């Protein structure tokens, strides 16, 4: 891989500036690579990155688990925190603000989805990496495993005091991914919520459900290794799903189940049996297999099964403020950005408790 700046897009590039990041050409091995960003518009800001979380979506994308890369080299990273160093005239951010950027960095602003706060469904949406800008200026998108990033100001969110950059970074994807469905499904007093999978997503799901004052927060995992941690995170009950007696004891006891695991050979019948009448199961993990869900209980007990992905601008703002106020924190291992390959391999191997965050100063 060369370090030649990218000139493949038709957009006007700012050749006086070079951004440098850690890029993939289709494997988990990342190498240093530089490119010229687009000329900054009046609606955009430039961020000096301090931290970037590593998400499973980064790994799936760069290894072509979801299809071939749209272009190469590709800089991943969509849980970005950094300081504003340049601002366009139309943005409300100030130089020096600590802001966060998630997977979505642009949308049309005019469609029915944008007008109702669901920018993540906009047909003209643009993702932070492995995508192309759709604002008429052209260009490729590069992510947060880098020193700098340009983004439309409305898709950068001020990080409140009390949240460190390392803690805040995973909230921009993992946190939003679990907060959005919990909010939408009415998690709160009077509800019993189960969280399946106590990992990068699930450990935040437990904390959010606790902070929403749900009557019960039930952590569900296939072993006992995370039992103690789950209670520290705020769970009121723990179920080892490999133990039939514990599953049976929870028969039809939950109003909402948040499914965050990426495990295979899932016993969907057993999970559906945990849901009470008119209960809901929402899948937020990207599964590698079809759902073998029994149909009968869906009908006779009015059970709903759905999926969910991130959230729009206002939901993101609400999530960050809620996390800061209620002490919802990502538990992270911080590694130097210069060790990006080692860090992403560690995340892929499932070793962290619970997220890996890259520190761009190292």
Automatic annotation (TrEMBL):
Keyword annotations? Metal-binding, Oxidoreductase, Zinc
Q: Is Oxidoreductase found in the keyword set?
A: yes
Look up the record and name the cofactor or cofactors this protein needs.
Zn(2+)
Question: Record's superkingdom?
Answer: Eukaryota
Q: Which Pfam families match?
A: ADH_N (PF08240), ADH_zinc_N (PF00107)
Q: Name one GO molecular function term.
A: metal ion binding
Coiled coil regions, renumbered to chain: none
* UniProt-listed CDD domains: CAD1
Q: Where is the Enoyl reductase (ER) domain?
A: 26-358
What is the name of this protein?
Enoyl reductase (ER) domain-containing protein
What is the native source organism of this protein?
Answer: Lunasporangiospora selenospora
